[in-house]
Amino acid sequence: MINNYLKLQYKLLTRHFTATGLPLVIAPILLLGACYLVYYLLLQYPVFGSYAILLGNFQLLFLLTEKNRNDFLKNTFNKKDFYTIRLLENVLVTLLSIALLLSQSLWLYAFILGLLAVVFAFLTFKAFGKSIPTPFAKKPFEFIIGFRRSYLLIIVLYLLAAIGFYATNSNLVLFCVSGIALTCILYYQLPEPVFYLWNSRETPAGFLLRKFRRGLLQCLLFVLPLLLTYAFIYSSEWFNALIVLGGILFLIPFAITLKYVAYPREINFPEVSVLILCFSFYPLIVALLPFYYLKALKNLKNYL
């Protein structure tokens, strides 16, 4: 039974990858490339690279604890097989990250990640229900769904930022702000049903501008408290906060634009690679945003 489940998950992963339009043989090459980039990050920034690895794996492990998913597994498998599957999933998700951390002799971070993989196998988290209010409007919907899937990561990032303020580590605070912004960008990965667009009476330009305004407002609800506190405590370094804020003001509209360039399919490898490139080098957005904005307008004319 367990072997059949793992084979099914492998088949689902391969189908998701081939849906990007890339041949399956490219997958190992991309995986090795991603591992090399993470390895390089650890070489250049061992502390912040370790934080990034831990937080990324934390979110993946958290997603695997979703209640409906785990209830299905409990109803399908006996108790022993259920926990075996959960442990195997968590080990497979974190194995490469643990190996990279060990390669740099970051024993403590590797131990923490391994401990999280074991602990999360026995946890189940239920997403916030409709009765619990959120600071976000229902339209657009991205932050409602995204927040309920990542609220624990947001809490952890705020706690790390608080530690950064307490330890007078300004770089850690900016790292947490960047992590929150990246989390918000990932909210735009999933497309809405096409009839949502059919019901809209806006022009493509009006539709995108409304998405930009709402997305920026909702993201700023997360990051502005930290940035304002940063500018107040580290008044001599306010320009760093301004640079991060400027990047957010460009990255959110760019992520929204890429979503509607790819619509109605999900954002895949071509869009993700461009987004990662821009996240690494902010000024590139200035050149690419107008190009992709026009492509998004052209695509939206088919639905609005």
Describe the protein in words.
- The N and C termini lie far apart (47 Å).
- Helix content is 77%, strand content 0%.
- The chain is an all-alpha fold.
- The chain has helices at residues 2-18, 26-44, 46-63, 67-76, 79-103, 107-120, 142-166, 170-186, 194-198, 204-233, 238-262, 269-280, 283-300.
- It folds into two domains: 30-126, no CATH class; 134-304, no CATH class.
Largest sheet, in brief, is:
none
User: SSE order, as H and E?
Assistant: HHHHHHHHHHHHH
Point out poorly predicted stretches: none
Mean pLDDT: 87
- Which word captures the global form? globular
Helix content: over 70%
Strand content: under 5%
**Count of alpha/pi helices:** 13
Number of strands: 0
Taking the alpha carbons of the first and last residues, their distance comes to 47 Å
| Integer-rounded radius of gyration | 20 Å
The class by helix and strand makeup works out as: mainly alpha
- Tally of individual domains: 2
Brief description of this entry?
By secondary structure, this protein is mostly helical. The chain has helices spanning 2-18, 26-44, 46-63, 67-76, 79-103, 107-120, 142-166, 170-186, 194-198, 204-233, 238-262, 269-280, 283-300.
Descriptors:
transmembrane; 304 residues; transmembrane helix; membrane; 2 domains; mainly alpha; ABC transporter permease
Q: SSE layout and pairings?
A:
Blueprint lengths: L1 H17 L7 H19 L1 H18 L3 H10 L2 H25 L3 H14 L21 H25 L3 H17 L7 H5 L5 H30 L4 H25 L6 H12 L2 H18 L4
Helix pairs in contact: 2-3, 2-5, 3-5, 3-6, 3-7, 5-6, 7-8, 7-10, 8-10, 8-11, 10-11, 11-12, 11-13
